[in-house]
Structures are given as C-alpha cells and as structure tokens.
Design brief:
The complex is a heterodimer of chains A (112) and B (116).
Chain A lengths: L3 E4 L2 E5 L4 E7 L6 E7 L5 E8 L4 E4 L2 E6 L4 E6 L8 E8 L6 E3 L3 E6 L1
Parallel strand pairs in A: 2-11
Antiparallel strand pairs in A: 1-3, 3-8, 4-5, 4-9, 6-7, 7-8, 9-10, 9-11
Chain B lengths: L4 E3 L2 E4 L5 E6 L6 E8 L3 E9 L2 E4 L8 E7 L2 E6 L8 E8 L10 E2 L3 E5 L1
Parallel strand pairs in B: 2-11
Antiparallel strand pairs in B: 1-3, 3-8, 4-5, 4-9, 5-6, 7-8, 9-10, 9-11
Classes of the chains: A mainly beta (112), B mainly beta (116).
C-alpha cells in the first residue's frame, strides 16, 4: 500500500521567497505523480503531472521534480506571492495502478 | 468542458436521514473516483469505477455507504442512514485512463456534508 508523506506540514514565509515543498512515497514502482493546490473550502486544482519517465515538469513559477529511486518529489515555487497561499497536495498512485493516494499536504501562507 | 460537476455543494441533514451526492465526470473520461476529506484522515479513496464498473470499493467505510454509476456521465454516492461522523467533504474526480498509466485526475469542487 502506498504511503505518502509531505514535509513540512505548514509553512509561513514573506513574499518573494523561493520555496521547496517535499513529498516522499514508499512504493517507487509508480507511473506518475501529481501535485495539486487546494484553496480553503474549495476543490483540488491540478498543478503538475510528472510521468515516471520524466525527471521534472515546469509550469510558470512552479517546478516539480521526481526521483523514483529514492521515492521523492519536490515542488519548487519561485518568487512566492500572497496568491500562492493554499494547501499543496502530492498524489502518488500505488505501484501498478493509476489511483492517486494523497499526502496530508503542506499548508502555505505567503504574507506581504 | 465545464470540469467535474458535483451537487449539492453543501448538504445539512439530520442523523438517520438518507443522503445522495451526485457527480458528473468530464466527458470522455472513463475512470471516476469518490474521495472523502476530513481533518483527521485527510483525503481517502472510497471507491473507483472504470467504464462504469466498480473496480475497488474497499475504501467504503461501512455498508451504509453505496455508490453507483449507471452511465458514463453520472455517478451517485449514497449514505443511508447518515451519522454525525459522516460529516466531511466528499470529492468526485475523473480521469481519462486509456490503458496507459500516465493520466491526470481532475477534481470537482466537492460536497460539504454536515450531519447533525
């Protein structure tokens, strides 16, 4: 059974900082990994999908990397803004499946 | 496409009542998932369907919970009878799984259920 851990659980930073959010998983036989954003009281918005054959994926100020062998992924947020404040969730399928298993998320606050 | 559509957005009901949550997946997606989110346990998979067929319902907490997908554009999650501990946000998600594993899941806005 896949277990997903996200560190840190919470983060509060001033605007402009570059951030690294971490995700680790126990079963490395995965096909992809997905990062989501969740605003309070809202649904999940897909940010990035990294396929197993990729090492990283970029979208704007976001960059996600994947190291399958070590069971780790990082989400890098450049030049953080108050609008980035949200919970960031990592989702990893169990080996051999495509069903996402979620970590508990990192709650991010970026203050002006 | 309008994305995954869930209804209602909010539901408040009394203990013992039947609750039905609804989901319309993205057109063309053949996989559908129901998740439950609570502060204590985070996001948990309840059940998923592929081509309208339930594949794994091992996450359904009790027999009080049931889910159906009568066609490719509609699914329901029913709780009967409801209990206060069922209070949570229920999410539906869909994915265009086509036999390759590199597929992306898309989530609805969720239904916030409160059982009093």
């Amino acid at each position: 059974k896949q277990e997903v851990t996200q560190i840190p659980a919470a983060l509060s930073v001033p605007e402009g900082e570059n951030l690294v959010l971490n995700c680790s998983f126990t079963d490395s036989a995965i096909y992809n990994l997905q990062w989501f954003r969740q605003d309070p009281g809202k649904g999940l918005t897909s940010l990035l999908l990294i396929q197993s054959s990729q090492r990283e994926q970029t979208s704007g100020r976001l960059n996600a990397s994947l190291d399958k062998s070590s069971g780790r992924s990082t989400l890098y947020i450049a030049a953080s803004q108050p609008g980035d404040s949200a919970t960031y969730l990592c989702a990893v399928p169990s080996g051999g499946s495509y069903i996402p298993t979620f970590g508990r998320g990192t709650s991010l606050i970026v203050h002006p | 496409d309008a994305g995954v559509i869930q209804s209602p957005r909010h539901e408040v009901t009394e203990m013992g009542q039947e609750v039905t949550l609804r989901c319309k997946p993205i057109s063309g997606h053949n996989s559908l998932f129901w998740y439950r989110q609570t502060m204590m346990r985070g996001l948990e998979l309840l059940i998923y369907f592929n081509n309208n067929v339930p594949i794994d319902d091992s996450g359904m907490p009790e027999d009080r919970f049931s889910a159906k997908m009568p066609n490719a554009s509609f699914s329901t999650l029913k709780i009967q009878p409801s209990e206060p501990r069922d209070s949570a946000v229920y999410f539906c998600a869909s994915s265009p799984y086509d036999g390759r594993m590199n597929t992306e899941a898309f989530f609805g806005q969720g239904t916030r259920l409160t059982v009093v």
